[in-house]
């Protein structure tokens, strides 16, 4: 057995081998040591190898999924090795024959399908990066839903697109590891190097055509060689990990960078679109706007939020559906009630396609189709928007399949096929007979006994059973002669004679005995056969079912966003091809929700008018006044508008934004040797080098991480570059009040400030943005609010007054005032002048303490005291 284990393990050196032994998956050698530590389970030993103990640990087969999830999350890959034959079959080859085993699946982060291993409301993408002669492509698939996408892109765009998708595993060609590895690790994905042959475009094209049953990929669109290579690598890897059981992938969709708003990784992080800066989902934009009630709807929301559209017709269609749901409150409520009962079609289909599904997946599909039917019935008659009417059409056409599943399945089937009992009574006659024999064997034998007693005319005839003879007919010795005579001897055959009884058998009784003994196994085999037929019927309709799943997800998201808009007072924005960014009484959706949850009062709404009142707003004001919140909320409103959602504002007019850039907050990247200031400069450089004239840029405190004049110079030059070169719309927050003069020199720059009120030496934040420039920063007041000691605050006021007075007086006066402050003094303090010793000092120096008596010492103290007082 251990020789078999080592042979199989040699083929999977980089994976933990789950070696099936009966009801356990066992791990040996280094695999056992690593797994025992990762899973916190006992490490034991089994025999010896090369004179040393063999480490061993194991997990039960029935609960293996939980252990798999832990291992995958900790970065391991797992090769699942199953028994490929029954131990009884192995013994036929010899008493010491080893059961045949083989790896049936390689479990990796990007190839999960089990419900317990996946987050229902998130995609789990497997991605591949390909490059052919300088051309790059990115392909990604979610085998749990069947989605397959690909895009051609320039190398600098790979990082932002990976950040958008958030794949859990990325395939790289062996030669590309160094070039792209840092982009993958930055998003926390697992890197899987695979051979260059997997990225060969010719071989990839053959694999793809075979998968989709076509002679050319032109049937799905025009793909570049790099795109074919990337998709082919994904399919090759799935063939390796799934051992030939390829998932049910949908035809590939080619995405175009020009069709979506471009958002880089730093901006996604700064705006906390799908994850908060703390790392979790709580506090992100997604977490506060997600009111979907289905897993498919939740995944669709995340996709749209991660990739806002730049196509006006798409945005308008989504808005039309939301507007209809806003107006039809009863329909919206009923729709959400029905959707709550709809299971996840995509993931049930995926599990069935790779043979990891079960009866419950079939029941989920049945329940989903029933839910789709009910939703069709509640759709308003008459005047309905065209987009919703089109979705309604995708919910129908499943009558035959629904009838089949409804008739075949019980209401609540078990998860596993091997458990049996999931086929409804009356669906299959043979199954009903087998079940009757299994469950009612006694009554069947009792009926046969009654029939034989009547046939023989012997009321005392009994049918009995023992472990030697099985079932037999028994009569007393007085009736034996009759049973042995014609015509009864043609039916009853003699088996055994005892002292007082004679035993017989019949052909029907022998057959019934065999059927009763095998009834349980036969019933299960029949159910398995019926299951395979039902599964095949479902997979034949996979394309239509996937279309229904997409329609249900869109309906769910539409109703959820409408519910959000009604509850929070969001409005429908005007989105067009202009340069406008006119937002009236806009609010930050996340901050507003946090205030609402805390009962901390209403959010102060503010206006923003770029395009007509200047393309760039230079925003000044103190810390804690809300500048960063104002910057972020306008970026989020523009983003939400282009997802097709309503927005948190009284009204909004958004000219299409091609790119969204955000440089807000301070952070370092010590792992890559970058200080806070270096990270700030790298992100600012990316903005200035990439932003086009349709971009929206928000910048906060550029240059604050270095010396005052260096920082001011950088901020000054950045503002000019945004105005003169990029020509984009921007919100630029700064503490450098010197920049406010640029509004008079740069035609598209306007000043705005966050209002505060000073009272009794304290500052009150009004959180109101108005046109104009701030005259001070109120930093000392903010420091006081933060709890700095009073002594520090008072000293800071003195220093600030001196510096400001020197600034007003200028030149030498300013220098003199600064020199008066020891903290800022540029000259060393003069050495102290020594004075002549006093009379008392001379007297003390002449004292010899060891020669004084107590009385003399006391007298000397009185003498010195008298001199001091004189």
Automatic annotation (TrEMBL):
One Pfam family this sequence matches: MutS_V
Keywords for this protein: ATP-binding, DNA damage, DNA repair, DNA-binding, Nucleotide-binding
Binding site for ATP: 621-628
Signal sequence annotation: none
UniProt GO BP: mismatch repair
GO cellular component: cytosol
InterPro entries noted in UniProt: DNA_mismatch_repair_MutS (IPR005748), DNA_mismatch_repair_MutS-lik_N (IPR007695), DNA_mismatch_repair_MutS/MSH (IPR017261), DNA_mismatch_repair_MutS_C (IPR000432), DNA_mismatch_repair_MutS_clamp (IPR007861), DNA_mismatch_repair_MutS_core (IPR007696), DNA_mismatch_repair_MutS_N (IPR016151), DNA_mismatch_repair_MutS_sf (IPR036187)
Domain spans labelled DNA mismatch repair proteins mutS family: 695-711
GO MF, any single term: ATP-dependent DNA damage sensor activity
NCBIfam families according to UniProt: mutS1, PRK05399.1
Family of this protein: Belongs to the DNA mismatch repair MutS family.
Function in brief: This protein is involved in the repair of mismatches in DNA. It is possible that it carries out the mismatch recognition step. This protein has a weak ATPase activity.
Protein name in UniProt: DNA mismatch repair protein MutS
Organism the protein comes from: Pelagivirga sediminicola
